[in-house]
Write a structure and sequence with these properties.
Blueprint: E1 6-10, E2 21-27, E3 30-39, E4 42-47, E5 72-73, E6 80-81, E7 88-90, E8 100-101, E9 103-106, E10 109-112
Antiparallel strand pairs: 1-10, 2-3, 3-4, 4-8, 5-6, 6-7, 9-10
Length: about 120
């Protein structure tokens, strides 16, 4: 495993369509909130920032999915994002998706791999 990998959480902490795990990353030299979720058996992570305006998505700490558990939702605008890509599906995001982060599941844990 690369020396710069950062442990986010135990793999069991992410349940398909369930609460996400928040963490902090350095993005362009600034500490930014981020989150990881599980969707269809895979872990995905994004900066915790709506594509419309730079506000955090979760409507309650760690709650990123809409009621259907099929989309990530912005708590302020109701914009919907595809969990597997961060692509804007509908709402005020105007085509601006979420910023993806590189994560991997290994040995029962979820790791973040910085790309900067």
């Amino acid at each position: 495993m690369a020396a710069d990998a950062c442990l986010i959480c135990a793999a069991a902490a992410l349940v398909d369509g369930g609460p996400g795990v928040r963490f902090t990353v350095s993005h362009h030299g600034k500490n930014e909130p981020a989150f990881a979720v599980r969707y269809r058996g895979r872990a995905f992570a994004y900066l915790n920032r709506c594509g419309h305006v730079p506000i955090e998505l979760d409507w309650r700490q760690g709650e990123f999915f809409d009621d259907s558990k099929l989309y990530l939702i912005c708590s302020t605008h109701g914009a919907l994002y595809a969990p597997e890509s961060g692509r804007c599906q509908s709402g005020r995001c105007n085509g601006n998706g979420l910023i993806p982060l590189c994560v991997e599941e290994r040995d029962g844990a979820i790791y973040f791999f910085p790309t900067e």
